[in-house]
Write a structure and sequence with these properties.
- This protein has one domain: 4-Layer Sandwich (Metallo-beta-lactamase, Chain A).
- Helices cover 20% and strands 30% of the residues.
- The chain contains six helices and 15 strands.
- The radius of gyration is 16 Å and the shape is globular.
- Bound molecules: nickel (II) ion and manganese (II) ion.
């Protein structure tokens, strides 16, 4: 499968002829190479309800009738808006015709702020495992470091892991490097940095901290085939 990075936490996977877009934050994402009118995902995976992850989901999914896969709460939220959804939850896996999705825990929060300045509860935040053709991609979502990352890597050997390194809202580079050691992923790519001033980081320094020496800084638009 082909996996590309598009700034902040935006990751796109091409699998079985389908396009799967994770956390499509495009408008307001100064680092992305994507435009809302140019993406046409069959599937949108959402790790949690924050604006920098839900992003442009409504507009994109409405335009392309994309299937939204996320927590039961986020799925219900979008189904009320007339969109196609598949609700799941932490620890559960489901095999779709484009591959298998399994959600993991993430230590974070998951409220959605409305235009009326209300915060809606949207379930637990999650990380996502995407599996197909004998390969596994892990998108950690937004999370702090947790020791069960070891368990996640043991139970689902990971070929490519996307880990947040921005600090402030998620793991910083030191904790993310430690996380990479727990996960034992074959390849590690830093995400969720440099989009906003509080999450400014040097990704190359993170790569040098990795105990396994297997990190790559992906520029927005860059593709890896696994
Ligand atoms: Ni978040
Ligand atoms: Mn975030």
């Amino acid at each position: 499968m082909k996996v590309s990075y598009h700034g902040h936490s935006v990751v796109q996977i091409q699998s079985n002829g389908k396009t799967i877009l994770i956390d499509p934050f495009i408008n307001g994402n100064g680092l992305t190479d994507l435009k809302v009118e140019d993406v046409h995902p069959d599937v949108i995976i959402l790790t949690h309800g924050h604006g920098d992850h839900i992003g442009d989901t409504f507009e994109i999914a409405k335009r392309h009738n994309s299937l939204i896969v996320s927590t039961a709460e986020i799925a219900t939220f979008f189904s009320f808006k007339g969109l196609r959804t598949h609700g799941m939850n932490i620890g559960g896996a489901y095999t779709f015709d484009f591959g298998k999705i399994k959600f993991t825990q993430a230590f974070h929060s998951s409220g959605f702020t409305t235009e009326q300045n209300e915060i809606i509860y949207l379930g637990m935040p999650m990380g996502a495992l995407f599996m197909n053709e004998g390969k596994t991609v892990y998108h950690a979502g937004d999370t702090g470091l947790f020791s069960d990352m070891k368990l996640i890597g043991e139970r689902n050997p990971i070929d490519l892991a996307f880990l947040p390194i921005g600090d402030n809202f998620t793991m910083g580079p030191e904790d993310a490097a430690y996380a990479a050691g727990l996960l034992k992923a074959k390849m590690v790519v830093p995400i969720h940095y440099n989009t906003f001033p509080p999450i400014k980081q040097n990704p190359q320094q993170f790569i040098e901290m990795l105990p396994t020496g297997n990190g790559i800084v992906m520029n927005p638009g860059e593709v890896i085939e696994i």
